[in-house]
Structure formats: structure tokens, C-alpha cells
């Protein structure tokens, strides 16, 4: 990356930036039903071995296809999922739901010199890009896109982003809404801010040791400014 930066803020997508609504969940499972005839799957992401869309699809397809499963089946899913999302948004069947003040904080951070922005998400790249483009956020976040296209837990996704940034971990703030995000920040040594609009989700993070937890992005921005000693 040719642009010089001395710090970074990395966002999880669902929770801190976008609300994941049922129609978008349905779009993930639709290709499994329509292409492979697989139904009745759990919507509890924590019920799968690895909370990562690539690993979830590999687990589901390998369990249902057995010895017949190979990489071509996974590629077929990705193509069908990409098409389902694009058709859904273009037709109006799907509509992105933006977390309040998410565009404001992303825009404010993007304007700060020397600060890089990116994502570390369990979404596939195609889904993250399509949904964030719909929200008008992708261009600011696309330089460091940590997505699920390589397998691994969230802390591994975040580690790849930090490696690409070539920054010390203490110059990185990671913002997430789930316990695996908290774990990712801890394992990588970054600053961590737990964010969710619902108080019970914030309390869950606090109960598990998150020091900084917020439900308003004005407060998130203030925390980032202090953590990275940024000019206001």
C-alpha cells in the first residue's frame, strides 16, 4: 500500500456498521436450498465449528455431500450467493440497514491524515462489498478488506489485516459486537471497542471483560481519538 499511515481503525461489519436482517440471512441460505437442496440449517452462527462464512459453507456442503464434495461445489455456492444478493438489492427485495451514525464515524475517520480504515468480518468478500456499497461505506473501507474468503476464526482474519497494515498492534483499534471479536482483539493485542445498539449485547461484552463498550458512535469516535491520540 503506497499511502503512508501510522494508525488504523478496523470494523467488524454486522453490529458496528450494518444490522443483519432476516432477508439478508435468507439470501445466505437460499443457494444451499435452491442449488443443493439443503434445508433446515441452524441460523445460530455459533453452532458451527468456525464462525466464518467460508468455513460454514464447507462444513455444510461436506456434511451433506460427503465424498462428493469438492471445491467446485463451494465455488458454485459463492456464484449463486453473489447473484442472489445482487438481484435482491437491484430488485428491492433486499435493503441494507445502516447502524445509526455509522456513515458519520467512517467519514470522520477517513478524513484524518495518517489513519487507515478497513474491515475484519466473517462475511465473504462478495457479500461485504455489495452490502457496504449499498450503504455508501465501501470506498472508505476497501483498502484493507479482511473477509472470510480465507478460512479461520475472527482473530485470524484480523491478524491478516494487521499484517497487511504493517503496523504495531497498539496502533490499531478493532471495533466488534461479539465475543469472538473481543477474543480477536485480545489475541492480536489491539485496542478493542465493543459496540452494539442493544444493551443486552453490550452487557454480554462487559460481562466477559471488555473494558470499552458503547452503543453510540459519537462515543466510539471519542474513544478512538483517545486510544490513538488523534487530533480532534
Structural descriptors:
6-stranded parallel sheet; 232 residues; alpha/beta; globular; single chain
Can you put this structure into words, describing what you see?
There is one protein chain. With 232 residues, the protein is an alpha/beta fold. The chain is 49% helix and 13% strand. The protein contains ten helices and eight strands. The chain has helices at 22-36, 53-65, 71-91, 102-110, 125-134, 138-141, 154-165, 179-188, 199-207, 217-227; strands at residues 7-11, 18-19, 97-98, 115-120, 144-146, 172-176, 191-195, 213-214. The strands form two sheets. The chain has a six-stranded parallel beta sheet with strand order 5-4-1-6-7-8, sandwiched between helices. Strands 2-3 form a two-stranded antiparallel ribbon. α9 (199-207) links the parallel β7 and β8. α4 packs parallel to α10. The chain is globular. The relative contact order is 0.17.
Ends distance: 26 Å
Biggest pleated-sheet summary: 6 strands, parallel
> What does the average pLDDT come to?
96
Supply the number of helical segments. Answer: 10
- What is the spatial order of strands in the main beta sheet? 5-4-1-6-7-8
Low-confidence stretches: none
Strand content: 5-15%
User: What order do the SSEs take from the amino end to the carboxyl end, as H and E?
Assistant: EEHHHEHEHHEHEHEHEH
Number of E-type strands: 8
**Considering DSSP H and I runs of 4 or more, what fraction of the residues is helical?**
40-55%
Q: Which oligomeric state applies? A: single chain
CA-atom Rg in angstroms:
18 Å
Silhouette = globular
Helix-and-strand structural type: alpha/beta
Amino acid at each position: 500500500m503506497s499511502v503512508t499511515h501510522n494508525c488504523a481503525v478496523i470494523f467488524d461489519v454486522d453490529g458496528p456498521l450494518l444490522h443483519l436482517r432476516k432477508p439478508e440471512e435468507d439470501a445466505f441460505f437460499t443457494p444451499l436450498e435452491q442449488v443443493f437442496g439443503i434445508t433446515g440449517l441452524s441460523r445460530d452462527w455459533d453452532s458451527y465449528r468456525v464462525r466464518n462464512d467460508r468455513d460454514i459453507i464447507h462444513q455444510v456442503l461436506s456434511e451433506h455431500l460427503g465424498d462428493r464434495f469438492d471445491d467446485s461445489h463451494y465455488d458454485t455456492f459463492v456464484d449463486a450467493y453473489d447473484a442472489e444478493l445482487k438481484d435482491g438489492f437491484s430488485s428491492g427485495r433486499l435493503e441494507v440497514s445502516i447502524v445509526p451514525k455509522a456513515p458519520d464515524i467512517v467519514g470522520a475517520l477517513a478524513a484524518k491524515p495518517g489513519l487507515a480504515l478497513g474491515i475484519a468480518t466473517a462475511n465473504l468478500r462478495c457479500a461485504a462489498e455489495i452490502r457496504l456499497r449499498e450503504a455508501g461505506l465501501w470506498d472508505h473501507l476497501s483498502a484493507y478488506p479482511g473477509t472470510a474468503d480465507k478460512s479461520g476464526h475472527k482473530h485470524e482474519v484480523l491478524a491478516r489485516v494487521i499484517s497487511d497494515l504493517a503496523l504495531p498492534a497498539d496502533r490499531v483499534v478493532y471495533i466488534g459486537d461479539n465475543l469472538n471479536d473481543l477474543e480477536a482483539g485480545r489475541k492480536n493485542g489491539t485496542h478493542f471497542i465493543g459496540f452494539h445498539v442493544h444493551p443486552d449485547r453490550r452487557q454480554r461484552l462487559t460481562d466477559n471483560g471488555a473494558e470499552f463498550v458503547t452503543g453510540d458512535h459519537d462515543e466510539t469516535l471519542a474513544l478512538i481519538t483517545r486510544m490513538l491520540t488523534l487530533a480532534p
